[in-house]
Every structure is written in C-alpha cells, then in structure tokens.
Input
Amino acid sequence: MAEAEARYREKRLDRGIKVRADTIYAISSYREIFYLVLPRAFPVFALLFLPIVLSSYWEKVLVYACVYGLLALSWDYLANCGLFSLGQAFFLGVGAYIAGALSYYLKLPIWMTIPIATLGGGVVCAAFLSPVVRLRGVYFAMVTLMLPLLLMKMIETTGIFGGTHGLSALQPFPKEWIGTYTVVVVFLACLFIFRRLINEDYGLVLRAIRDDDRAVMSAAINIYWRKTQALFVAGAVGGFAGAFITHHYQFVGMSVFALDYSILPVGAAALGGPGSFAGAALGSMILVPLSEALRALGGMRIAIYCAILVLSVIVLPEGIFHYIERKYHQFERLVRVG
Amino acid sequence: MGAGVLLEVENLRKHFGGILAVFDVGFTLRRGEFLGIIGPNGSGKTTLVNLISGFVRPDSGKVLYKGEDITGKRPYTIAGLGIARTFQMVRLFYNLPAFKNLIIPLSSSRVKRLRGGEYGERDDVAVDLLDDMGFERDSFVPYKLAGSLPHGYLKRLDLARAMALRPELLILDELFSGMAMSEVASTLPLIEKFHEEGLTIIMIEHRLKELFRVVDRVLVLNYGQKIAEGSPQEVMETEAVKKAYLGIDVEIK
Output
C-alpha cells in the first residue's frame, strides 16, 4: 500500500530566472520576457482600460478602490518602517480639508489645491506625529487612532471649516474621466515607485528599522528622522487621496475623518499581504468592489463581508498577493520516487 | 584633559530598580590605547558599554569624548561621532545577504561625510569591507543570507558592521563568546591589525588568555564597581580580583 502511494511525489521547483541582477540583464526568450512583464503590465493595462468599459456606477467603485488603495499603500509604507498606523483617516482628512479650504476660501483652481494639499498633508502629518515616532507598536497605533477623532470633534465644536455642515460647492474636475484617470495614474505610480524604493538602499534602511531599531541606531542612523520622513511620504499620499475625494464630491465634511478610512486600508493590506505594496493594492481592489457587490444582500452585507475577511486571513495568513506570487514562480511536477 | 585623551568616563552610575549595575566607575582612555574590561557575570560590563554608547542613560556621572560631553546623547549621535560597538548577542538582519547588512552603516551621514559627500557604490564598499574581514570576495559567502552563516561569521559580520562606520573608538562586547577556537584564532589578528593601524579599542571579554595577549591595560569590574586597573599581570596579582573570580581567598601557585 504505502509503496504504491509513495512511488510518485509532487515536486515543487522555483523557476530559474533571475529577474535582475545588479549589473546583468539577461533574458533569453520571448517566453521569459512575457513571464516577467505580464504580472507588472497586467494591472497597469487593466486599470487604464477599465474606466472605458465600466458603467458609471462601477467607475465610481473603481475610483473608491483607488482612493482606499492609496490609503492602503500609505499604511504599508509606514508598516515597512515599523509604524503601525490605525489613522489613515487622519492623513485623508488633513488633505481633504486643506484642499477644501483652499478651494472654498481662496478660490484656488484644482490644479493648485491638489498639489498643495498633497505636500501640506505630508508636512502636517509629519509634524503632528513626529513627537510620537518614539512610540512603537500598539502605542503608536492608539495615538493615530485618536487623532482623526480629535480633529473631528474640534471641527464639530468650534465650527471651523463649516463645522458640521462642511464646505460644499467646491470646484469639480473638469470632466469626470479626468478625475478617474488622475486617481488611477497616481495610484499606479505610487505602487510602482514604492515597490522600487523599498528595494533601494533607502528602503533597506527603513525595513531594518522595523526589524531591529537598536541595530540601526548603532549604525549612526537617526531612526526618528527616517521615521518622520516616512510619515511625510505616507501623509502626502493620504493627503492626495483626501484632496482628490474633496474635488470628486465637490464637498468636504467631517465624514473624511470616519473610522472606515482608518480600518479598511489595514484590512486591505492584511488581506492582500503586507510588506509588498502590491498586496495592499490588490487587497483594496478586492475589498472595495466586494463591499459594493454585497450591497444587494441588504442587512447581511456587513456580516458576509466580515466572514469573508476573517476566512481569508485564516486560510491565507501570508496574504493573497504573496500566495499568488509564490505560485507564479513555482511549477509542480510529479517525480518518481525510488 | 591631557593631550591624547580620547575618552574620559567619570563616576558613571546606573541602577535598575534596586540593583546597582554600575557604581561610580571612571577611567581614562588615551588615543590608540587597547583597554580590556573583565569581570564575572553580572558585574556591569555590558551596562557600562550601553552607558558609553548611549543605549542606556546614566543616573549620574559623565562621559567625555574628545573633551565633549556625550552623556545621555542618543545612540545614533554617539555612533555618528565615531564610537562604534558590537553586540554581545549579534544584532543583524538575517533575511538580508551578508554584505547588505553593511549598507545600513554605509548609508549614515557619518560615512557620507568621511567619504567627501559621496556615498559611492555602497555594495562594492560593503564587499570590500567583508573581504577584509575574511569573507572571501570571490566565494559565495558575502552574498549568502546572513541567517545561513555560521556563528563565527555572524560575529565577524557584526564587527564589519561596526568598522563600516570608520570609527575612532571601537567597543567590542564579548566578540569571542560562542566562537570556536579556530574562529577566535582567525579573528584576533584582525583586531590586532586595527589596533596597530591606530584604532582605539575597548574589549570586553571572558576569554582572558586571548584578551591578555592583545590589551595594554585591563579594568576589572565586580558588582558594578571598579576593583582593579592596570597591566594584565598587575591586575591578576590583585587580591580583590582573585577573590572576585574564585569567590574565596586562595593562593594561586
């Protein structure tokens, strides 16, 4: 019995292609070029092509997915240097209110408000959070969780920036497709730039801070300054997302500080697989449309949504992206044993 | 401050809860000197290193480096001034190739400054450094994951990580612990070479035989206090040292 079963064994092998050595670019066939380019080109073409074919409703869903995707990328960037944030809503809200205020009070055009809100969001987030970069793990998470709630209450009680009514009738994107493509292109650019950056020496130091900050300190690197830089980058990305939805809705209100914006990006990153950016991006591309598709189910929506999330985290704790990546680079064959 | 003094430690004191880890320890280190620090387990040697390198803040006392007060400064500031250290338990990034571990110190502003504002090709510099440490450039060793290297290599990698900062003072915290005799034999000449090239070194060690071969002066700690200081021979003749090491008053023949 046992002999008959053991005669064949499944063997898994890694495909023997070195994508890029530091100095050597060697690709031997079209097949290999295709093998390497496909996983990178597919999401680009898919995202650029989708707005053309999708109905107006699902185009809005795609925009949503990109906004959450940007927040998830921003979350993953912080996670890469050991800062576990639960306050992406803070990043989003700061950018949204900067863009809203500039547009409402100063009547600045859209092409000025978005860049200013992006940079301003980065500066404000870095400034607000730099005093707490010494905190790690759950302590940092708690501070970031509280900040958007704090700002929300401040706006509610003082009535600044329109208070509970928010600022409305803001300048929209000239055409809807311009808005859609803006967020899609920025999302893709952000994904590929982050993926490249994290493998450069700069990213290597960031990841090292996450793994062992004392070892990095003993290498004469000011880890708090590096973390503040990471906060600026993450804040700028969140700030852009905020400025975008302000002009997308032509409205900014306290809802930009909602807990959804903090929690869903973390869920997306957990689902897709943290640490690689592609996982966070993939996660948000799954979660947001899924949430919309479940809308038809009415009251059970949230329950089913949560069940799917819980199941996926249990079944694939490494994340969907890491699973796909691993499988893509392996092939299986049966080998005869004995 | 006398001429040629690199490091002055004055009445350094640190307690953790009710335990006095370091109690009024002071010493002076001249440029180019090789100081050994010995003492039984728990005598405060590592705490002393942590106090100097900024990982632990002292309750009182002072550390002067080149006449500048560096007491309580942040570890990265102190490392940036040229005090590099290794760790008793090596702190490396095991999921990186060995040479990539050196990219971190090589990315520091200190190295940039010393290299004239030019980082250069860090990977090449890293492999050069490892080559000097006995990781042969043409072998696979520098490119293997740090996690797959034997312990002796890890210790030398940690040493290379410290040397990548081009330090003026090198503090070795039990570099030889866990090393095989052959690994010690191949690492000791490296340290001697650094010393001959003018590097000031503080070395904490339990292997007295190897330590005494290379150091100029030894400082003995027991229960956080300095109980003896002097040349290796002088120190080992001291009653307090014999007592600390052997626990009782015995004659050593």
